[in-house]
Amino acid sequence: MTALMRRAFYIKLFSCVICGLFGAVTAADTVAITRDAPFVWLKAINNATTSGVKNRDIDGATAALLFPLVSQQPPQQIEANFERQFKLLQEIPVACSGKKIYTPERARLGHFSDIPQLFSVGLRLFVVKDSAYAEIIAELAKAGRLSMATLANSLPRLMVGAVAGRSYTPQLDDVLQQFASTKRLWLRSAEDMASGMTQMLVSQRVDAIVEYPTIMADFSPDNTDKVFVSYQIIETPAFTDGYILCAATPQGEALVKRFNAAIRERSQQRDYLDAHLQWFEPARHNEILAYYNKVYGTHFVLDEH
């Protein structure tokens, strides 16, 4: 049995145990999630095997600060890729997952938190500086910003890579579907999604990838002399909010209410801001601070400790 098969087996076994523990629950049932109630946290697979920057796991760092306010028991944590997380949310009645972008389609799969758990700098399009399309893409960009719709129409042979299971924005999702309809979109769904995407760009299996700057910084391979150039994508905001999503069950609804209260309380404390700041290079800390204060209604300053 391979490692992947063993992982799938244990996840399935654990799902059955949880379902048996809580029994069949209908929407009409009243469920109370107490401070000592167990729950499951679905987290991204940790495959930082290249140049990973330490303490970059903003999802894990912020979640760890919230957990004690949600339950006295630490959650059972299960590693899964994006696609698998959404499947598990439908199988485990007390499952929650972080860093999820809100879409109406996803809202039908579970209960979203009212306020973001975290936020990140917006998506960018990355290309190799000396690649065949680099000069043309640079000409299409305006002040460092690039329209993916313009790119799709101007470069009919451009192959773009993206992570399977992600939802970006409705506008960008529509453009990526345009790439997909002409067989110019490579969706990577393997467990090494983050590092795998950068390797595909380095090896020129794709001409460009859609990715977050922090992920590129963490997972760019050390054994390459390739230089990456990136452009802000017009179809996406400057910052992307990530919410907590819990199972579409009464237990999930109760859990997300606890997370709402936890985020409101913890975001007012300096260590929650620090969990965000350590995810970004110091040159961006001023803009990160301004957005944090806007989202959480705080008044922090950078030299405050």
TrEMBL record:
UniProt-listed Gene3D superfamilies: Periplasmic binding protein-like II
Record's keyword terms, sorted: Signal
Recorded superkingdom: Bacteria
First and last residue of the signal peptide: 1-27
Protein name: Transporter substrate-binding domain-containing protein
Organism for this UniProt entry: Rheinheimera maricola
Lineage: Bacteria, Pseudomonadati, Pseudomonadota, Gammaproteobacteria, Chromatiales
